[in-house]
Give the backbone structure.
Amino acid sequence: MAPNPIPPLALREFLDFLREQSQQLRHCPECGSVFEHLIATFLLYGETWDIALPVCPKCDLRSSSHTVVAQKAAA
């Protein structure tokens, strides 16, 4: 028997919460740097949410895989 999927209402509430809370994160808890925010768009049943994802310019770009992604995004 397959597990029950997450109800769409719960996902909508989660995305609403993320949209409201994402801009409140200002500083990285690891190094104290000011976060940059990258906008990500989520689509669910015809609704969209633009959510600002916090990214630390020091900690999140340390690994080479993140650097490659950041370089591709900048191109």
Notes: The chain has a mean pLDDT of 79.
